[in-house]
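Schema walk-through. Below, the input block comes first and the output block second. Nothing else is stored per chain. Lengths vary across the set, and this one has 107 residues.
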Amino acid sequence: MEVNSKSLDVFEQIFGTRAVARGKLKWENFRAAMLDTGCSMTRGGLGSAVTFRNLEGKGSIGFHEPHNNVEIRSSYCRGKARRLTNKFGWTEDSFVERQKGEETQAP
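--- output ---
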């Protein structure tokens, strides 16, 4: 799936493909990367629940937004990677950088 370079960096960090060790990931970058894949996002009523719906018909997945809305711990990234693989079938090989000038497929 084609994503922009910033989103590719996020998914490489989540799936552990970066040459550098996993570090903390900014929530806003994760959210933007998920939207860049074409997922829609909804917030669940009260609290920190956020649902990303895959627009290719693969269902949805929920995550909790960090209360400080700043960073996601590396251990949480590993859990995200497992859940994204189990739910959407995404792996480290699922993402390639979109050529500059191409528009995202998101509505």
